[in-house]
Design goal:
This protein has 70 residues and is mainly beta. It has 1 helix and 5 strands.
């Protein structure tokens, strides 16, 4: 992933995860065309790697992707 303007963006199965590379804060934006058809609770999982030139760490971010109810 190549960060743009300090934000790294990762495409998931049901939406997009945007991570602020300075703070680690993140926002998940579901994609309505992908999340609307699901009928049961599910998750979107991302592997995130941080590197500060002294150490590298990898972690998992899991976001709930509940079905849309009408």
């Amino acid at each position: 992933v190549t960060p743009a303007l300090g934000i790294a963006t990762l495409q998931g199965r049901y939406g997009t995860l945007s991570v602020n590379i300075a703070s680690g804060a993140y926002v998940y934006m579901p994609d309505p065309t992908k999340i609307n058809p699901i009928t049961a609770d599910t998750t979107d999982t991302f592997t995130v790697t941080a590197d500060d030139a002294r150490a590298v760490g990898t972690g998992t971010v899991t976001v709930a992707a509940p079905p849309v109810t009408t």
